[in-house]
UniProtKB/TrEMBL annotation:
This is Dihydrofolate reductase. Gene3D superfamilies: NAD(P)-binding Rossmann-like Domain. CDD domains: HPPR. Pfam families: 2-Hacid_dh, 2-Hacid_dh_C. Keywords: NAD, NADP, Oxidoreductase. InterPro entries: D-isomer_2-hydroxyacid_DH (IPR050223), D-isomer_2_OHA_DH_cat_dom (IPR006139), D-isomer_DH_NAD-bd (IPR006140), NAD(P)-bd_dom_sf (IPR036291).
Length: 313
């Protein structure tokens, strides 16, 4: 009987994935990605799989000469150099689909919280103010709005279905028109922002989307505009967003992601028309466990059957 393959976990990983991998592989766990500090050359040569929630760059891949698969925890995999991995015949996987509905639920919840000022209303009650006064009527409403979705992928479609259920028209922008989608398509993000008054960003991070939600896009959204970001913080020019909220260029925003998590800029925290969440889009126990399960099953499938379940393109 052959020896089990050696799999590495550098840094944090969900315990469910750890347990699954520990039961089937020779599992090595190290606190970070400094391979030379924690592993001998013999150990590095033995590693054939990696389960990760961290940056995997060219140097990391080169340091593992017999690496075959990198299983990323999360649907976004911009921190893994998948393009370089392909040149080394290393398969990269992610965890799509299992989190789509959860993120879409959170997105609509965040949108409603922003428009109806739910966090402020909760604080109003907790602070005892309801005993002496009435909570001010919310200035904004979802009624008679058009919602633009920046990124009509799997999660974008789930969000769009929920928006439709609210009786609101949907439009979108992505790199190309999505197959099987009847929503109005705009070839540029600026054109989309000009046509809607709610903009929801659900695109992945990376150079192609960095700071694409900029001052011009926010200005096009308008003074009654609402911006929601549940994709990646890097997509937004944060200085432009802060300025737009301060000056009334847009009315309000809700974000689940920022550029330098968890370090929220003080300028953001000072804005009473901004709702900030701690990156909890998929953060339910059941969904995060399902993501961990898929991380482990990708590696198990690779070494048992020679094929990963969810390889990235």
């Amino acid at each position: 009987m052959s020896e089990p393959a050696t799999v590495l976990i550098p840094g944090w990983m969900h315990e469910h994935a750890r347990d699954m991998l520990r039961s089937q592989f020779n599992l090595i766990e190290i606190p970070d990605c400094d391979l030379e500090a924690h592993l001998t050359a013999q150990q590095r040569a033995a590693i054939r799989g990696v389960a990760c929630y961290t940056t995997i760059d060219q140097n990391f891949i080169d340091a593992l000469p017999n690496l075959e698969i990198v299983a990323n925890y999360g649907v976004g995999y911009e921190r893994v150099d998948a393009a370089y991995a392909r040149t080394r015949n290393v398969v990269v996987t992610n965890t799509p689909d299992v989190l789509n509905e959860e993120v879409a639920d959170l997105t609509l919840g965040l949108l409603i919280s922003v428009v109806r000022e739910i966090p402020k209303a909760t604080a109003f009650v907790r602070n005892g103010e309801w005993k002496t006064s009435s909570f001010p009527h919310s200035r904004l409403t979802l009624r008679n709005r058009t919602v633009g979705i920046y990124g009509m992928g799997r999660i974008g479609r789930c969000i769009a279905r929920r928006v439709e259920a609210f009786g609101l028209p949907v439009a979108y922008h992505s790199r190309r028109p999505a197959e099987g989608v009847d929503y109005a398509y705009f070839p540029t993000l600026l054109e989309l922002a000009s046509a809607v008054d709610v903009l929801i960003s659900i695109v992945p991070g990376g150079p192609a989307t960095e700071k694409t939600v900029n001052a011009e896009v926010l200005s096009a959204l308008g003074s009654e505009g609402v911006f929601i970001n549940v994709g990646r913080g890097s997509v937004v020019d944060e200085d432009a967003l802060i300025s737009a909220l301060r000056t009334g260029t847009i009315a309000a925003a809700g974000i689940d992601v920022i550029v330098d998590e968890p370090n929220v800029p003080e300028e953001m925290l000072a804005l009473d028309n901004l709702t900030v969440l701690p990156h909890i889009g998929s953060a339910s126990v059941s969904t995060r466990t399902a993501m961990a399960d898929l991380v482990a099953r990708n590696i198990i499938s690779w070494f048992q059957d020679g094929a990963a379940i969810t390889p990235v393109p």
